[in-house]
Amino acid sequence: MIRSTAFKGGLKSSFPIVAGYLPVGFAFGVAAEGAQAGTLAAVFTSLFIYAGASQFALVGLLKDGVPILSAALITLGLNLRHLLYGPGLSRYTEEFSLRERLVAAFGLTDEVFAVAFSRIGIMPHESRFWWLMGLEFGAYSCWIGGTLAGSISGDLLLSHFSFLRPALSFALPALFLSLLLPMLNSTTRPAVMISLLLAAAFHWSGHSEIGIIAAALIGPSIGIIVRNFQ
How far apart are CA 102 and CA 207, in angstroms? Predict the structure, then answer.
């Protein structure tokens, strides 16, 4: 009963993420189809890589003829920021078994981490794992569903409703920003501002991928330093 209630609670908490993931997953399906990756490859990528921005980068690199090993290494580099998510939640998951930690780690996307970090601490210990599973399942399943729908019918839909294309590309950043703003305080603000400035500087210089990695590593490091001195 506790497991079922906790899972349903996590599933309910995933609804804001679902609202952002469906259109972005749809956009990825469209992008993969445009790169002639095919529906099977698009869904496979969402199933096993499951990292929005990195998936778009991977499809773009392969479309441009970049060797698959180089494309894989760049994609891996873009995902290095996820190494920070587990330690960020570790003090709330000490009672998890190794198997539970491994399962939970797979579903920690940017948005899932943001929601989990802000709420899991108030959950009873016995409910945390199943609440997190509900949260991750809601996000994961809608990302895959959006990818499948975009790959199958995306081009046809967007050819009739072309105004939707820019909205799809902005949905994920808008979602993450809405989750980030309530978490800003005197401790987190310096790290966020430095991350934004780094990412923007690299983007304007034409090196967006490097900017993501630099912001993901340097921003949180500065945040840790600021916290230790407060």
Answer: 32
> Is there a single domain that holds both residue 96 and residue 121?
yes
Q: Are residues 105 and 69 in the same domain?
A: yes
pLDDT above 70 (res 199)? yes
Q: Are residues 172 and 140 in the same domain?
A: yes
**Same structural domain for residues 201 and 128?**
no
CA atoms of 69 and 22, how far apart (whole Å): 29
Q: Of 181, 196, 218, which residue constitutes the final position of a domain?
A: 181
Give the count of beta carbons closer than 10 Å to the beta carbon of residue 226.
16
User: How many angstroms separate the CA atoms of 215 and 207, rounded?
Assistant: 12
Range of the domain at 198: 184-230
The better pLDDT of the pair 164, 202 is held by 202
Write the Ramachandran bin of 185: left for phi over 0, alpha for psi from -120 to 50, otherwise beta.
beta
Kindly tell me the burial class for residue 39, based on how many C-beta atoms sit within 10 Å of its own C-beta (0-12, 13-18, 19 or more): middle
pTM for the structure as a whole: 0.73
